[in-house]
C-alpha cells in the first residue's frame, strides 16, 4: 500500500486525516407556530405573530387584524433595515413629515403620515384663507391646526425612535381611522354651518 494512499486497499477504510468541522447552526424557528391558547389548540388552529404589534392571527388572515401588517412580512425579517442615524431621521422628518420614515425603510408608513399631515394642514390653511366667520368654522380651524402640529411633532419623534430600532408610536390602521373620522367630522360641521346660515 502506498504511503500517500487515500484509502485502504483491503478494507476500504479512509486514510485521509480528519478535519474538524464547525457544528451546524440550528435552523431558525419558523414564524408560523401553533398557539398556546387552549381554545385555539382544541380547534387545531395554527397562528402567526405579527412582528409589528405582537397580535396573534390565524393562518386564514393575510394581514394582521390589529395593525394591518402583511403576513409576508414574517419572511422578510432577515432583511436588515438601513442603518440610519436617529438625528438624520429626525431632521428629515422635520423637513417634511414622512421623510424620516422613508429614511429608515418604512416608506408606506411615511406616506400615510405625509398624506394625513397634508390633509390636516391644508384644511386648516383653507379655512384660515377663507376667513372663519362663525363659531363652528373657528372650531374646525383650531381642530385641524392642532392636529397638524401634533402630527408634525409626533411623526418626527416616531422617526427618531424607529431609527433607534423601536417600532411606530401609532399604527397605520389608527391613522387610517383617524382620517375617516376627520372626513366625517368635516362633513357634519359643514352641514351644520350651511343649515345655520340658511336659518338666519
Description:
This protein is 51% helix and 5% strand. The longest helix has 29 residues. It is built from 6 helices and 3 strands. The chain has a 3-stranded antiparallel sheet, with no helix packed on it. By secondary structure, the chain is mainly alpha-helical. A hairpin with a 6-residue loop joins strand 2 and strand 3.
* Count of alpha/pi helices: 6
| Helix content range | 40-55%
Instruction: Please report the distance between the alpha carbons of the first and last residues.
Output: 116 Å
- Percent in strands: 5-15%
- Bulk shape: elongated
What's the alpha carbon Rg, rounded to whole Å? 29 Å
Helix-strand pattern? EHEEHHHHH
Nearest-integer average pLDDT:
76
Q: How many distinct beta strands?
A: 3
Structural class: mainly alpha
How is the main sheet built? 3 strands, antiparallel
Strand order within the widest beta sheet: 1-2-3
The low-confidence parts are 33-38
Amino acid at each position: 500500500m502506498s504511503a500517500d494512499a487515500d484509502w485502504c486497499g483491503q478494507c476500504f477504510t479512509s486514510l485521509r486525516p480528519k478535519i474538524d468541522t464547525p457544528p451546524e447552526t440550528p435552523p431558525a424557528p419558523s414564524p408560523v407556530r401553533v398557539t398556546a391558547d387552549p381554545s385555539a389548540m382544541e380547534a387545531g388552529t395554527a397562528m402567526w405573530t405579527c412582528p409589528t404589534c405582537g397580535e396573534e392571527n390565524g393562518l386564514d388572515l393575510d394581514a394582521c387584524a390589529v395593525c394591518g401588517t402583511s403576513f409576508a412580512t414574517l419572511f422578510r425579517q432577515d432583511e436588515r433595515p438601513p442603518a440610519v442615524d436617529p438625528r438624520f431621521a429626525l431632521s428629515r422628518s422635520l423637513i417634511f413629515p414622512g421623510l424620516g420614515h422613508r429614511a429608515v425603510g418604512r416608506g408606506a408608513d411615511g406616506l400615510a403620515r405625509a398624506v394625513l399631515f397634508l390633509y390636516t394642514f391644508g384644511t386648516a390653511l383653507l379655512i384660515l384663507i377663507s376667513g372663519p366667520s362663525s363659531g363652528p368654522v373657528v372650531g374646525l380651524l383650531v381642530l385641524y391646526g392642532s392636529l397638524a402640529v401634533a402630527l408634525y411633532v409626533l411623526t418626527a419623534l416616531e422617526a427618531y425612535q424607529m431609527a433607534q430600532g423601536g417600532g411606530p408610536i401609532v399604527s397605520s390602521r389608527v391613522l387610517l381611522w383617524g382620517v375617516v373620522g376627520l372626513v366625517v367630522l368635516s362633513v357634519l360641521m359643514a352641514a351644520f354651518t350651511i343649515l345655520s346660515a340658511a336659518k338666519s
